[in-house]
Amino acid sequence: MSGPPRVRSMNVAPGDPEARPVLVPAGNKVRPVDGGKPVKKSTPETEKKPVAHSNPQCDSVPPPPAISKRQDRHQAVLKNLSSMNASCSSDASSTDSSTHSSGASSSGKVARRVGLALRKKQGGPKTEKVSSDNVNVEDADSSDSLEGKKRCAWVTPNTEPCYVAFHDEEWGVPVHDDRKLFELLSFSGALAELTWPTILNKRQLFREVFLDFDPSAVSRMNEKKIVAPGSPASSLLSELRLRSIIENARQVCKVIEEFGSFDTFIWNFVNHKPIVSQFKYPRQMPVKSPKAEVISKDLVRRGFRSVGPTVIYTFMQVAGLTNDHLISCFRFKECISNAEAMAKESSLNSKVKEKANEESTTEVGLLLTVNKLSFTSK
Protein backbone atom coordinates (compact mmCIF):
# COMPACT_ATOMS: atom_id res chain seq x y z
CA MET A 1 0.00 0.00 0.00
CA SER A 2 1.06 3.50 -0.70
CA GLY A 3 0.95 6.29 1.82
CA PRO A 4 -1.21 9.38 1.75
CA PRO A 5 -0.66 11.92 -1.00
CA ARG A 6 2.24 14.24 -0.44
CA VAL A 7 1.59 17.97 -0.65
CA ARG A 8 4.66 20.16 -1.04
CA SER A 9 4.74 23.36 0.96
CA MET A 10 5.31 26.66 -0.81
CA ASN A 11 7.99 27.87 1.59
CA VAL A 12 10.22 24.87 1.15
CA ALA A 13 13.08 25.20 -1.24
CA PRO A 14 12.89 22.88 -4.22
CA GLY A 15 15.40 20.11 -4.57
CA ASP A 16 15.73 19.61 -0.80
CA PRO A 17 15.38 15.88 -0.33
CA GLU A 18 14.71 16.08 3.44
CA ALA A 19 12.13 18.89 3.26
CA ARG A 20 8.57 18.18 4.36
CA PRO A 21 5.38 20.27 4.55
CA VAL A 22 4.68 22.06 7.85
CA LEU A 23 1.84 24.49 6.98
CA VAL A 24 -0.89 21.99 5.82
CA PRO A 25 -3.19 19.99 8.04
CA ALA A 26 -1.39 17.07 9.60
CA GLY A 27 1.78 18.39 8.13
CA ASN A 28 3.59 18.19 11.44
CA LYS A 29 2.95 14.48 11.68
CA VAL A 30 5.79 12.14 11.06
CA ARG A 31 5.86 10.53 7.63
CA PRO A 32 5.10 6.84 7.42
CA VAL A 33 8.12 4.63 7.42
CA ASP A 34 8.95 2.94 4.16
CA GLY A 35 9.31 -0.75 4.32
CA GLY A 36 12.86 -1.85 4.63
CA LYS A 37 14.14 1.59 5.72
CA PRO A 38 14.77 2.06 9.44
CA VAL A 39 13.46 5.10 11.17
CA LYS A 40 16.17 7.61 11.99
CA LYS A 41 16.25 8.50 15.66
CA SER A 42 16.90 12.04 16.64
CA THR A 43 20.20 12.57 18.42
CA PRO A 44 20.33 14.23 21.85
CA GLU A 45 22.05 17.23 20.29
CA THR A 46 19.08 17.79 17.98
CA GLU A 47 16.64 17.47 20.86
CA LYS A 48 18.56 19.89 23.02
CA LYS A 49 18.76 22.66 20.39
CA PRO A 50 16.22 25.42 21.14
CA VAL A 51 13.81 26.37 18.33
CA ALA A 52 12.69 29.98 18.00
CA HIS A 53 8.90 30.54 17.93
CA SER A 54 8.22 26.81 18.08
CA ASN A 55 4.82 25.39 18.75
CA PRO A 56 4.44 23.46 22.00
CA GLN A 57 3.13 20.54 20.02
CA CYS A 58 6.24 20.30 17.83
CA ASP A 59 9.04 20.58 20.45
CA SER A 60 10.28 17.16 19.55
CA VAL A 61 10.30 17.90 15.79
CA PRO A 62 13.47 19.51 14.31
CA PRO A 63 13.03 22.88 12.54
CA PRO A 64 12.97 23.11 8.75
CA PRO A 65 16.26 23.75 6.92
CA ALA A 66 15.39 27.33 5.92
CA ILE A 67 14.73 28.39 9.48
CA SER A 68 17.79 26.57 10.72
CA LYS A 69 19.92 28.31 8.07
CA ARG A 70 18.56 31.70 9.11
CA GLN A 71 19.23 30.90 12.73
CA ASP A 72 22.75 29.77 11.87
CA ARG A 73 23.30 32.96 9.89
CA HIS A 74 21.96 35.04 12.77
CA GLN A 75 24.12 33.20 15.28
CA ALA A 76 27.18 33.70 13.05
CA VAL A 77 26.49 37.45 12.92
CA LEU A 78 26.05 37.56 16.69
CA LYS A 79 29.22 35.55 17.11
CA ASN A 80 31.15 37.96 14.90
CA LEU A 81 29.78 40.91 16.84
CA SER A 82 30.63 39.28 20.16
CA SER A 83 34.15 38.49 18.95
CA MET A 84 34.60 42.10 17.82
CA ASN A 85 33.33 43.38 21.17
CA ALA A 86 35.61 40.96 22.95
CA SER A 87 38.60 42.09 20.92
CA CYS A 88 37.77 45.74 21.55
CA SER A 89 37.23 45.14 25.22
CA SER A 90 40.45 43.13 25.42
CA ASP A 91 42.33 45.94 23.69
CA ALA A 92 40.80 48.48 26.00
CA SER A 93 41.48 46.34 29.03
CA SER A 94 45.04 45.73 27.89
CA THR A 95 45.49 49.45 27.37
CA ASP A 96 43.96 50.20 30.76
CA SER A 97 45.98 47.46 32.39
CA SER A 98 49.19 48.68 30.78
CA THR A 99 48.37 52.23 31.82
CA HIS A 100 47.44 51.05 35.30
CA SER A 101 50.52 48.87 35.56
CA SER A 102 52.78 51.68 34.37
CA GLY A 103 51.09 54.06 36.78
CA ALA A 104 51.27 51.52 39.57
CA SER A 105 54.90 50.81 38.84
CA SER A 106 55.73 54.50 38.79
CA SER A 107 53.72 55.11 41.95
CA GLY A 108 55.35 52.05 43.51
CA LYS A 109 58.79 53.41 42.65
CA VAL A 110 57.91 56.74 44.20
CA ALA A 111 56.52 55.03 47.29
CA ARG A 112 59.62 52.89 47.59
CA ARG A 113 61.85 55.94 47.28
CA VAL A 114 59.88 57.80 49.95
CA GLY A 115 59.87 54.75 52.23
CA LEU A 116 63.61 54.28 51.74
CA ALA A 117 64.24 57.90 52.61
CA LEU A 118 62.10 57.61 55.74
CA ARG A 119 63.87 54.42 56.76
CA LYS A 120 67.22 56.11 56.31
CA LYS A 121 66.14 59.01 58.49
CA GLN A 122 64.67 56.73 61.15
CA GLY A 123 67.23 53.95 60.88
CA GLY A 124 70.33 56.10 61.19
CA PRO A 125 70.00 57.08 64.84
CA LYS A 126 68.78 53.59 65.75
CA THR A 127 71.87 52.03 64.25
CA GLU A 128 74.06 54.50 66.07
CA LYS A 129 72.18 53.81 69.28
CA VAL A 130 72.61 50.07 68.93
CA SER A 131 76.28 50.46 68.23
CA SER A 132 76.70 52.77 71.20
CA ASP A 133 74.80 50.31 73.38
CA ASN A 134 77.06 47.53 72.22
CA VAL A 135 80.08 49.61 73.09
CA ASN A 136 78.66 50.35 76.53
CA VAL A 137 77.93 46.68 77.13
CA GLU A 138 81.43 45.73 76.08
CA ASP A 139 82.91 48.39 78.32
CA ALA A 140 80.79 47.17 81.21
CA ASP A 141 81.80 43.58 80.55
CA SER A 142 85.43 44.54 80.34
CA SER A 143 85.25 46.53 83.55
CA ASP A 144 83.35 43.72 85.24
CA SER A 145 85.73 41.03 84.13
CA LEU A 146 88.76 43.16 85.12
CA GLU A 147 91.02 41.84 82.37
CA GLY A 148 89.52 38.36 82.49
CA LYS A 149 89.16 38.18 86.30
CA LYS A 150 85.75 37.15 87.56
CA ARG A 151 84.28 38.60 90.73
CA CYS A 152 81.59 37.43 93.12
CA ALA A 153 78.06 37.39 91.71
CA TRP A 154 76.85 40.33 93.82
CA VAL A 155 79.40 42.63 92.19
CA THR A 156 77.69 43.66 88.95
CA PRO A 157 78.46 46.27 86.25
CA ASN A 158 76.05 48.61 88.07
CA THR A 159 77.92 48.32 91.37
CA GLU A 160 79.51 51.54 92.59
CA PRO A 161 83.29 51.75 92.03
CA CYS A 162 84.00 52.28 95.72
CA TYR A 163 82.34 48.98 96.59
CA VAL A 164 84.13 47.20 93.72
CA ALA A 165 87.47 48.46 95.04
CA PHE A 166 86.46 47.41 98.56
CA HIS A 167 85.68 43.90 97.28
CA ASP A 168 88.94 43.67 95.35
CA GLU A 169 91.24 45.08 98.03
CA GLU A 170 89.76 44.66 101.53
CA TRP A 171 86.79 42.28 101.74
CA GLY A 172 87.99 38.89 103.00
CA VAL A 173 91.58 39.98 103.64
CA PRO A 174 92.75 38.98 107.16
CA VAL A 175 93.10 42.06 109.39
CA HIS A 176 95.35 42.14 112.47
CA ASP A 177 95.40 45.83 113.31
CA ASP A 178 93.37 46.83 116.37
CA ARG A 179 92.19 50.14 114.91
CA LYS A 180 91.16 48.53 111.64
CA LEU A 181 89.33 45.74 113.46
CA PHE A 182 87.43 48.26 115.58
CA GLU A 183 86.55 50.27 112.45
CA LEU A 184 85.20 47.21 110.65
CA LEU A 185 83.23 46.14 113.72
CA SER A 186 81.63 49.61 113.84
CA PHE A 187 80.81 49.49 110.11
CA SER A 188 79.25 46.03 110.48
CA GLY A 189 76.88 47.42 113.10
CA ALA A 190 76.13 50.48 110.95
CA LEU A 191 74.86 48.19 108.16
CA ALA A 192 71.57 48.02 110.04
CA GLU A 193 70.95 51.61 108.88
CA LEU A 194 73.23 52.11 105.87
CA THR A 195 74.58 50.13 102.91
CA TRP A 196 78.18 49.34 102.14
CA PRO A 197 78.44 51.86 99.26
CA THR A 198 77.01 54.61 101.50
CA ILE A 199 79.39 53.74 104.33
CA LEU A 200 82.38 53.66 102.00
CA ASN A 201 81.45 57.01 100.46
CA LYS A 202 81.29 58.52 103.98
CA ARG A 203 84.29 56.61 105.27
CA GLN A 204 86.48 59.67 105.59
CA LEU A 205 83.79 61.50 107.56
CA PHE A 206 83.45 58.48 109.87
CA ARG A 207 87.19 58.54 110.51
CA GLU A 208 87.16 62.26 111.23
CA VAL A 209 84.28 61.96 113.69
CA PHE A 210 85.67 58.91 115.51
CA LEU A 211 89.34 59.94 115.51
CA ASP A 212 90.57 57.27 113.06
CA PHE A 213 88.83 54.67 115.25
CA ASP A 214 91.46 54.75 117.95
CA PRO A 215 89.73 52.79 120.75
CA SER A 216 91.37 54.71 123.57
CA ALA A 217 90.55 58.10 122.00
CA VAL A 218 86.95 57.16 121.16
CA SER A 219 86.37 55.81 124.66
CA ARG A 220 87.13 59.28 126.07
CA MET A 221 84.70 61.11 123.76
CA ASN A 222 81.75 63.02 125.20
CA GLU A 223 78.58 61.21 124.23
CA LYS A 224 76.38 64.29 124.62
CA LYS A 225 78.41 66.27 122.10
CA ILE A 226 78.52 63.38 119.68
CA VAL A 227 74.77 62.70 119.69
CA ALA A 228 73.73 66.37 119.87
CA PRO A 229 71.45 67.50 117.01
CA GLY A 230 73.37 69.21 114.24
CA SER A 231 76.67 67.51 115.03
CA PRO A 232 78.58 65.80 112.19
CA ALA A 233 78.07 62.42 113.84
CA SER A 234 74.28 62.87 114.00
CA SER A 235 74.19 63.07 110.19
CA LEU A 236 75.81 59.64 109.93
CA LEU A 237 73.92 57.35 112.31
CA SER A 238 71.17 57.33 114.87
CA GLU A 239 71.82 58.12 118.53
CA LEU A 240 71.61 54.43 119.45
CA ARG A 241 74.34 53.47 116.98
CA LEU A 242 76.59 56.35 118.00
CA ARG A 243 76.39 55.43 121.68
CA SER A 244 77.08 51.79 120.77
CA ILE A 245 80.33 52.72 118.99
CA ILE A 246 81.57 54.71 121.99
CA GLU A 247 80.68 51.94 124.44
CA ASN A 248 82.33 49.31 122.24
CA ALA A 249 85.52 51.38 122.21
CA ARG A 250 85.61 51.21 126.01
CA GLN A 251 85.18 47.44 125.92
CA VAL A 252 87.92 47.07 123.31
CA CYS A 253 90.29 48.90 125.62
CA LYS A 254 89.46 46.40 128.39
CA VAL A 255 90.09 43.49 126.01
CA ILE A 256 93.45 44.98 125.04
CA GLU A 257 94.41 45.21 128.71
CA GLU A 258 93.43 41.56 129.23
CA PHE A 259 94.76 39.89 126.06
CA GLY A 260 97.41 42.35 124.94
CA SER A 261 95.54 43.22 121.73
CA PHE A 262 92.07 43.05 120.26
CA ASP A 263 93.60 41.12 117.35
CA THR A 264 94.73 38.29 119.61
CA PHE A 265 91.35 38.11 121.30
CA ILE A 266 89.36 37.93 118.03
CA TRP A 267 91.62 35.51 116.17
CA ASN A 268 91.68 33.11 119.12
CA PHE A 269 88.11 32.12 118.17
CA VAL A 270 89.33 30.67 114.83
CA ASN A 271 92.74 29.44 116.05
CA HIS A 272 94.42 32.26 114.14
CA LYS A 273 93.48 30.67 110.83
CA PRO A 274 90.73 31.93 108.47
CA ILE A 275 87.73 29.72 107.77
CA VAL A 276 87.46 28.84 104.06
CA SER A 277 83.81 28.38 103.07
CA GLN A 278 84.16 27.36 99.38
CA PHE A 279 80.72 28.57 98.27
CA LYS A 280 79.76 28.12 94.63
CA TYR A 281 76.57 30.22 94.65
CA PRO A 282 75.49 33.29 96.66
CA ARG A 283 72.41 31.45 97.93
CA GLN A 284 74.69 29.09 99.86
CA MET A 285 76.05 31.92 101.98
CA PRO A 286 74.41 32.04 105.42
CA VAL A 287 73.37 35.11 107.38
CA LYS A 288 75.10 33.83 110.50
CA SER A 289 77.15 30.84 111.59
CA PRO A 290 77.70 28.86 114.80
CA LYS A 291 81.10 30.49 115.23
CA ALA A 292 79.51 33.94 114.91
CA GLU A 293 77.00 33.03 117.61
CA VAL A 294 79.84 32.01 119.96
CA ILE A 295 81.71 35.27 119.40
CA SER A 296 78.51 37.29 119.75
CA LYS A 297 77.68 35.73 123.11
CA ASP A 298 81.18 36.39 124.43
CA LEU A 299 81.11 40.04 123.32
CA VAL A 300 77.66 40.61 124.79
CA ARG A 301 78.87 39.11 128.06
CA ARG A 302 81.75 41.58 128.08
CA GLY A 303 79.43 44.58 127.56
CA PHE A 304 79.58 45.15 123.78
CA ARG A 305 76.48 46.58 122.06
CA SER A 306 74.92 45.93 118.64
CA VAL A 307 76.94 42.74 118.20
CA GLY A 308 74.33 40.14 117.26
CA PRO A 309 75.26 36.97 115.31
CA THR A 310 74.41 38.60 111.98
CA VAL A 311 76.60 41.65 112.72
CA ILE A 312 79.45 39.43 113.90
CA TYR A 313 79.26 37.21 110.81
CA THR A 314 79.48 40.30 108.61
CA PHE A 315 82.47 41.41 110.68
CA MET A 316 84.10 37.99 110.20
CA GLN A 317 83.63 38.26 106.44
CA VAL A 318 85.06 41.74 106.07
CA ALA A 319 87.91 41.20 108.57
CA GLY A 320 89.03 37.98 106.88
CA LEU A 321 88.17 35.60 109.73
CA THR A 322 86.18 33.70 107.09
CA ASN A 323 86.85 33.63 103.35
CA ASP A 324 83.37 33.84 101.81
CA HIS A 325 84.45 34.77 98.29
CA LEU A 326 82.85 32.47 95.75
CA ILE A 327 85.26 29.87 94.42
CA SER A 328 84.79 31.36 90.94
CA CYS A 329 85.96 34.78 92.18
CA PHE A 330 89.59 35.71 91.53
CA ARG A 331 89.89 36.96 95.12
CA PHE A 332 89.16 33.53 96.59
CA LYS A 333 92.64 32.13 95.99
CA GLU A 334 94.31 35.47 96.59
CA CYS A 335 92.80 35.72 100.06
CA ILE A 336 93.93 32.18 100.82
CA SER A 337 97.47 32.99 99.74
CA ASN A 338 97.40 36.23 101.76
CA ALA A 339 96.24 34.34 104.83
CA GLU A 340 98.98 31.75 104.39
CA ALA A 341 101.60 34.46 103.98
CA MET A 342 100.35 36.26 107.08
CA ALA A 343 100.32 33.01 109.02
CA LYS A 344 103.93 32.32 108.06
CA GLU A 345 104.90 35.86 108.97
CA SER A 346 103.17 35.67 112.33
CA SER A 347 104.78 32.31 113.06
CA LEU A 348 108.19 33.73 112.21
CA ASN A 349 107.55 36.74 114.41
CA SER A 350 106.49 34.52 117.27
CA LYS A 351 109.62 32.41 116.85
CA VAL A 352 111.75 35.53 116.81
CA LYS A 353 110.06 36.76 119.97
CA GLU A 354 110.59 33.40 121.63
CA LYS A 355 114.25 33.41 120.70
CA ALA A 356 114.59 36.96 121.92
CA ASN A 357 112.95 36.01 125.18
CA GLU A 358 115.22 33.01 125.53
CA GLU A 359 118.27 35.11 124.80
CA SER A 360 117.17 37.75 127.23
CA THR A 361 116.59 35.17 129.94
CA THR A 362 119.96 33.61 129.17
CA GLU A 363 121.68 36.97 129.41
CA VAL A 364 119.92 37.70 132.66
CA GLY A 365 121.00 34.33 133.98
CA LEU A 366 124.60 34.94 132.96
CA LEU A 367 124.57 38.33 134.59
CA LEU A 368 123.22 36.84 137.76
CA THR A 369 125.85 34.13 137.79
CA VAL A 370 128.59 36.67 137.10
CA ASN A 371 127.33 38.84 139.90
CA LYS A 372 127.25 35.87 142.25
CA LEU A 373 130.78 34.85 141.33
CA SER A 374 132.04 38.38 141.77
CA PHE A 375 130.30 38.61 145.13
CA THR A 376 131.74 35.31 146.36
CA SER A 377 135.23 36.22 145.18
CA LYS A 378 135.10 39.32 147.28
TrEMBL record:
Keyword Membrane in annotation: no
Biased composition (Low complexity): 82-107
Highest taxon of source: Eukaryota
Alphabetized UniProt keyword annotations: Metal-binding, Zinc
Region (Disordered): 1-147
InterPro entries recorded: Adenine_glyco (IPR005019), DNA_glycosylase (IPR011257)
Pfam families for the chain: Adenine_glyco (PF03352)
SUPFAM superfamilies, alphabetized: DNA-glycosylase (SSF48150)
GO terms, molecular function: DNA-3-methyladenine glycosylase activity; metal ion binding
UniProt keyword annotation of Hydrolase present: no
GO biological process: base-excision repair
Amino-acid positions noted as binding Zn(2+) in the UniProt annotation, renumbered to this chain: 152, 167, 325, 329
PANTHER family the record matches: DNA-3-METHYLADENINE GLYCOSYLASE I, OS04G0501200 PROTEIN
Protein name: Uncharacterized protein
